[in-house]
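PT: before anyone asks, these are the final sequences, not the draft ones from last week. 336 residues across everything. Please model them as a single complex and drop the result in this thread when it's through.
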Amino acid sequence: MTPADLKKALDLLAHDGVVGMPTETVYGLAARIDRPEGLRRIFTTKERPFFDPLIVHVANVSQARALAKEWPKAAEILTRAFWPGPLTLILNKADSVNPLITSGLETVGIRQPDHPIALELIRQASVPLAAPSANRFGHTSPTTASHVQEEFRGQVHVIDGGPCQVGIESTVLRVCEERGTTVLTLLRKGAITLEHIRKLLTSYNITLRFEEPTDRKQAPGQLKHHYMPDIPLIFVEDFKGDNDGVTAEANRRLHELPDDIEGVKIRKPTRPLAKAAFLNFQKDPIMAARELYSQLRDLSATGADHIIYRHDPVLCQGEAWEGLLDRLHKASSLRL
Ligand code: TXA
Ligand code: MG
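LR: through. Structure below.
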């Protein structure tokens, strides 16, 4: 990044523009939270429905506290341990937070990203930046500056901060207090696991209760499909048969799927599938997550017309793999 890149980004943000911002998880599409036109532009640029709320990115804890109605003790402990880092807290929102950010919910998502450029941009803007992942709605998230360029056909100014180190989106955790008990709801899995969170909070003698996300309003981003690459991804779990058998079965099954599910376009072939590309992971879940989205994009550009992932339950054991597997389930058109 050059000083000119940063200045251009700040100018755009000040004039209701949006900017591609590197973070440690994935690239974000940022606007100032005090610029409603900029916030609207995030949704129109991404073709994202207005019911899906945005995460606010802060440079420090005091900016975060100003966005929340209350600051539970658990929030204090979690942010001290995991910020800057891939943990988004969903807290009751302060009255001042624009409903465009929260889609009219009473809660707001907040995180401090662990990337020097993002932190510098927020500091110099002197105001937090709202940013969803910088991809078209439902599509694979970007983990390099050139992915963002491809997503928006060069129409968005992106600050190049190199490839993202984490590679999948932050853990999203709802935190609220009810009569002395801290109630936690995991809304999205990520690099920071519930086990990390539980261990830390119990070491501070916090009384915890875990809840499952119940209604859609509480967890608007929990769509069944998301992160989809350009060609169908087939997640093979239980299918007895070779790769040609997978392709043949996919040809039978894919055309029965609806064109879209919950507004997300399902990747379906227009002609019978013929040429597969294969997704394989590194053995370490951190490395595997780092490369996942780049791999999905690269495999989509090989000339193959579908991607086969053969799940290896022996390799992918334990909580550290869950965030990645959740992305793969949602990115796949079909599970066999
Ligand atoms: O790692 C990340 O979190 C990246 C980088 C750019 O920070 N951002 C990101 O944003 O993944 P996005 O918008 O693609 O995903 C945010 C998720 C969505 O599923 C959204 O529904 C959920 O967080 N979310 C945001 N605010 C919420 C709220 N108040 N209540 C419930 N869910 C919320
Ligand atoms: Mg996203």
